[in-house]
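ok so I'm stuck.
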Amino acid sequence: MRKHISLLAAAGLAAVGLAATPANAADPAFTLTSPAEIGLHPHPGDAGKPRTTTVGFVVENETGKNFGEQSTYTIDLTPLKGVADVKLTPERANDCTLTAAKVTCTDWTVRTYASEVVALDLTAAKGSKTGTVADLTMTGAAQGATFKPTTTKVKVGGPDLVLEEAKLKAKLVPGETQPLPVVFANAGTESVKGVALELNTTHGMGLVEQYDNCAYSEDRSDDEPWNVGWGKTVCTFDNEIKPGEIWEIAGALTLKAAPHAFIDELIYGVHEAGSEPKSTQRFSTPRTGKKLGIKARSAKAAPNAADLDPWNNQHEFGFSVKNTADLVAAPTSVKGKAGETVKADIGFRNDGPAWVAYLRSGEEVAMVDVVIPAGAKVTKAPKSCRAVTASGGYREGQLGAPRYFCPTSHVIGEKEKFVFPFELKIEKVIAEATGSVTVGSWSPEGAAPIGWDPKHGNDTAAFVINGKQITPTPAPTTPGPKPTSSTSPTPTPGASTTPSPGASTGNGKTPNGGLAETGATTGPILIAGAALVAAGGAVFLVFRRRATGRA
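replied:
not stuck anymore, here's the structure
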């Protein structure tokens, strides 16, 4: 089975300039994609052993349906003779064979969106010369379909930007600041004509300073759900970075934890200016009269062991900010006669001061446990809600249940409301029939108290049919008072080697746009700009993990 790649990954690979062009309107047309260019560490490598560079080939299917005929993919290896040695990447080469002249792969389905066909491990051949370039081309064929080929330029040598990992403080308090040192080197064989510094920060972590040569995203999360909770800053510099040189930021670059900060992250990296993919986020450029600069530190060896590895261009860091978030269940009251169907908006609000986001796992932050009042039967429930028995056990069927477990998304903004719309038929009028609405973490028995919520007395509210009118307490327009007790999030803060979601402006906006009408879980974000800068080429991969709900 082919390794399936998300739509965002397909978009990232498509950024190298490949697009489908049907040869026959009656036949489906597919696009093969691969990096525009890759660089190989010159033979035999720093330690006397050739270093490997991996290149992946992907087939894109934008027809909206699977193609069920046998497809054959061929990669011509003859141009690489004397330039690079090729091996199939273990576990990424199903149904593929390798000879000295070509790689042949067979598959019986072209799935929608994008699927990886094969990955190859390349090393510079013995005797190959630095600067040598060869084309690596894949073609495809299938009865009743056409394929647009893809070509990757393979070059021996090239620039290689290596970023030094900054020593940052992980445990913070709201409002605390700390400097962000940025040091990088060119550990390759060619110069870089200008660099770009990219900073991705989550909603609770922002930059204090603004500069004219930096662009800042506006966090348009309402129409870009995969970017919820993140913003981006890109600063460009036109300096030439020669092989062996080490450079650093020459100016203040300060991180600040916002009043709503809690579980927050930073991803920062450098790449060759102009090689980054076009972002769908909207950016603004301030006019402050100040410009961020960089300066050469020395021309010694790189700060880290270097190779032509795209992942050494960036690092990430997790912050644990001492804060709390008060989730308040909303009381609900509806009236109606026997036989009538009534609507009930059931949910809760976050009185803050913190936002809460599980960006790595994509798990729901909280769950609403709804107990239906006697005499009423649910005729319509949100798809994200799970019908259960009165004791919380398994139950078949979505409608007519006495109880429902409704998960939130993986992000709850600091002033956000979650609403789950229900419709109920009043089968029998019972004066002041009372159920309940409880917000908390998931457990098999129902919503349980959350450790970072300081006030459990407001976790549960009444759900009443034909009772006294209940007026919900309005959400405050400004962040509430500081809690009397504070807790720190449970995830371990600090540096991480697993690429994760990418960035925020820390401007205090509600990440989910203010109101979650259905409470449906949205997939987490993972915007990791992996850059391989080699002879002016780059490939950026964008990944998205699926949410993993437990309810």
